[in-house]
């Protein structure tokens, strides 16, 4: 019997796409459902701050899915809310991948790479799909030298995330039983369309819960923002645009100090499109930095994906050698600060106004946030509970 070979899937991210209408809508729908599923699964095992990138996970897991067969493919496509048809998946991502190289007015890039064990054979057809559909690089390496392989992978990830994600893998993560490591690095950097001036920062209390408060750095400004008070989930939504208006960050603030857990149970509604309206608002939000490491294996298994991790997995589209996924690791980073877009935008911002604002939006308690591309889905979603 041939040994069953492992395959690792790695994702590296930093917080920093137009396709045919039917495929765009299909992907948007799958992205939202997958994001909601992943958020709920993580929140059940993590009570602290976390950040996840469902978009990156969908990309790299879809790369594995198109090489899967039978029940392995069914479980993966079902979890990703994608069609159980590799041709349709390829069609979606072939068009999607062309739109991840944006340098102005914001930076958005998604890079895939397959690091192959030079002792194992991967089918030419799969290599062709990886390169032409997913725009993936492919490199063969000697996996007997785990330290060198880890160094090369980490160097590549750092180069694709502006040096924000470091040490994704360690030397002892690599061994000759592994056929391939599939890596995705997604990077986003954007400036606020409406700048928070450096002088607009101060410290105030953040209510961790009804009994605990801590001092936190906050930033504030007054402007017209998209806002909605959703009584169904008892929370307020406020959308902050980045320069270019393609990408927005939405803060979802529960009315109750201890309401973030209840809000998370309605995450599908939270991530869905809201009837936002432009309002005059004074907003106060925290400055924060979060780095998360998420082992996706447990998350995916809780969502019904078990076959790909078993020795009975079927990835015959990748190799004739029996193989299964060993783990899926995602490392994410986000930093939120005052950085704005242009001096012109800054000149329009002032708190010294005579009239009262329509909305006071003060983020001084646990909240949910997400970054979304206007056309193609949720890039990052996270929860902030405590500084």
TrEMBL record:
GO MF terms, alphabetically ordered: serine-type endopeptidase inhibitor activity
GO cellular component: extracellular space
Annotated family: Belongs to the serpin family.
InterPro entries per record: Serpin_CS, Serpin_dom, Serpin_fam, Serpin_sf, Serpin_sf_1, Serpin_sf_2
Keyword Transport assigned: no
PROSITE patterns: SERPIN
Protein's organism: Photinus pyralis
Signal peptide: 1-21
Protein name: Serpin domain-containing protein
Domain Serpin: 36-387
Stretches that traverse the bilayer: none
Entry keywords, A to Z: Protease inhibitor, Serine protease inhibitor, Signal
């Amino acid at each position: 019997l041939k040994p069953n070979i492992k395959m690792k899937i790695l994702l590296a991210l930093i917080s920093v796409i137009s396709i045919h209408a039917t495929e765009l809508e299909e992907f948007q729908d799958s992205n939202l459902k997958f994001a909601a599923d992943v958020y709920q699964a993580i929140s059940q095992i993590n009570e602290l701050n976390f950040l996840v990138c469902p978009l990156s996970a969908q990309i790299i897991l879809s790369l594995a899915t198109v090489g899967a067969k039978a029940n392995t493919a069914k479980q993966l496509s079902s979890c990703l809310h994608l069609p159980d048809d590799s041709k349709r998946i390829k069609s979606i991502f072939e068009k999607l991948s062309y739109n991840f190289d944006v340098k102005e007015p914001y930076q958005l890039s998604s890079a895939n790479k397959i690091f192959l064990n030079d002792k194992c054979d991967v089918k030419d057809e799969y290599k062709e799909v990886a390169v032409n559909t997913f725009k993936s690089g492919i490199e063969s390496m000697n996996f007997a030298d785990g330290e060198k392989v880890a160094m090369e992978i980490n160097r590549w990830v750092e180069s694709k995330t502006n040096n924000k994600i470091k040490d994704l893998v360690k030397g002892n993560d690599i061994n000759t039983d592994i056929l391939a490591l599939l890596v995705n690095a997604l990077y986003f950097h954007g400036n606020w369309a409406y700048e928070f001036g450096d002088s607009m920062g101060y410290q105030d209390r953040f209510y961790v819960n009804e009994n605990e408060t801590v001092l936190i750095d906050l930033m504030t400004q007054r402007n017209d923002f998209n806002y909605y008070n959703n009584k169904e989930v008892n929370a307020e939504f406020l959308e902050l645009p980045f320069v270019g208006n393609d990408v927005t960050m939405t803060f979802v603030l529960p009315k109750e100090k201890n309401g973030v857990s209840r809000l998370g149970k309605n995450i599908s509604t939270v991530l869905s499109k809201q009837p936002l309206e432009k309002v005059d608002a004074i907003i106060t939000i925290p400055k924060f930095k979060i780095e998360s490491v998420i082992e996706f294996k447990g998350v995916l298994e809780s969502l019904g994906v078990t076959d790909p991790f078993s020795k009975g997995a079927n990835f015959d589209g990748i190799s004739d050698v029996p193989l299964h996924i060993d783990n899926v690791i995602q490392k994410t980073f986000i930093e939120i600060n005052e950085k704005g877009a242009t001096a012109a935008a800054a000149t329009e911002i002032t708190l010294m106004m005579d009239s009262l604002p329509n909305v006071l939006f003060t983020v001084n308690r646990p909240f949910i946030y997400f970054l979304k591309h206007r056309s193609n889905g949720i890039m990052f979603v996270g929860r902030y509970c405590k500084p």
